[in-house]
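step 4 of 6: structure.
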Amino acid sequence: MTDKVLTANRLSDGISVWLDAAGNWNESLQEAFVARHKEAVDALEATGKQAFADNKVVDVNVVDVEEVDGVLRPLRMRERIRAGGPTIPYAAGYAGLSAIRSAVA
Amino acid sequence: MYRYDEFDHAFVNDRVAQFRDQVSRRLSGELSEDAFKPLRLMNGVYLQLHAYMLRVAVPYGTMNSRQMRMLAHVARKYDRGYGHFTTRQNIQYNWPKLSELPDALADLASVEMHAIQTSGNCIRNVTADHFAGAAADEVADPRPYAEILRQWSSVHPEFSFLPRKFKIAVTGAERDRAAIQVHDIGLHLKKNEKGEIGFAVYVGGGQGRTPMIAKKIRDFLPEEDLLSYTTAIMRVYNLHGRRDNKYKARIKILVHETGVEELARQVEVEFAELKNTELKLPEQDIAAITAYFAPPALESRAEGWAQLAQWKKADADFARWVQQNVQPHKHPDYGMVTISLKPIGGIPGDATDAQMDAVADIAQEYAFDEIRVSHEQNLILPHVALADLEPVYRALVATGLATANAGLITDIIACPGLDYCALANARSIPVAQEISTRFGSPERQAEIGELKIKISGCINACGHHHVGHIGLLGVEKKGEELYQITLGGSGDENTSIGEIIGRGFEPEKVTDAIEVIVDTYLGLRLDPSETFLTAYRRVGPQPFKDALYGDKTAAAA
């Protein structure tokens, strides 16, 4: 079975988040809890539905990932870009999403 | 320009208060996402890949420096220091927080701006020629009519839940700079033999997955009938437009399936009922709206001619910028300045808060406080004295906005693509950046001449690839990005839809493919005055296919 993680966008600010092992919505994919068997995926899906119903997150999805040298990598490019931020430097003068993420980590 | 009256102010402020309440109830959990989503969309708020996105309307692309400063303020306070000007003459912010959006909209309302009808199945922001009111070839200013349409269509109860979104564009010159033939309704302002103002009416154009060129259903519609005739079109569409299939719901499909003669007949039947009702535009109302758009008092500045010649002689970069980015104005002592938002290797359409503030300052000091957004994702100063071009240029250089490439190969339209957009299948911006970098030398661009590259990251075609002289459509194939190339598209008075040239190219090969196309053109053009589009229309696709794929089998694969 392909490894899976649960992702969504936070309701209040729309920022992409992933469910971590402690049950929190984390801004880093690398902190995500990885489901490696069906029961774990079912649990992810149930958690996602509940978080959506509780108005914590929106656009909840289970996505396929692979672990390469301890680093999680979504299989679809769309999800890789969601996780890493835009692949381009922002408009001149802006430090970029990675700087933001490391600042809040 | 148009100024809000009491009704407009009250309406927009009420809408902000209403949205503030809706956001508050959403955040508290009182409103579900299903209930809230259509409400946020009615206020221009989307959810994209990384965050919410706010699309702010710039009616017919016209604003003043106070409004531009507010756009900078919103970028600074509620976003991450920049905004993205779009092909619909609007601006999008990529990172606003839902919880702060009501404050952002309240700030925008304070300068007569809003995000209403920038989304949803309603009549969207009406677009117009970005040189309106200034162009030497203009019959009449299209903006008063765009404003009349804006007022009529704002929260129009009958047309707020159409089968699909609806876009209207107006141009006031023979040279179509508003791409009216790829809009749901295109209006071409003209004069009849008696000298009266009216419109040629086009209907059923559009891009997206089924690109179609609009059909002309009226040669000359008197201006007093603008709203009654438009209402007649909308009624036919609202009644017969397909609601069973999202992909067949635009009026272009209705026109195609019904046949243009029959559709025109149905419109005429409706129009006969509406022609002499309250929708008939009184002459004094047209005059009152037109007065808002009276051109600034342009004094004679004949000294500019000699100064300009001297400055051009002294500074080759300035001369190049004037050559490329300044167009003739109605008044011989003035010019229309295109501020390119396409720095070499940069992000098409993006501007920082500091750049927006700088443009506002320049417009206030040198350009009668007027700024336009073009559908080609640039900014325009429509009225600049030739005598002021040099200081304007210096100020633009200081803020990184003096790229001399308007209409050239690096003046690329690109949608946000997969770097931001939830609908995209492939990235657009990095492709634009690489092409821009490859062809960035001024000499090479000048040698190539007019060439419009337009890039979309999905079939919805926000990057207008169908009407690019060279169009690029990003698709996802087996999990990877692939770029399909079309040639020969055009969005002007001789609109054409580009033809797919052959199999697509991987991201690392697409710039090479563009170079092959450009080199093929340079090799076959009759002389440097034959543009890429003219040459393509003369020779067709085969020489380009041969150059790209070598043989016909490969091209078909």
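step 5 of 6: annotate
 - The radius of gyration of chain B is 23 Å.
 - Chain B has four domains: 6-109, 135-292, 303-398, 427-556.
step 6 of 6: archive
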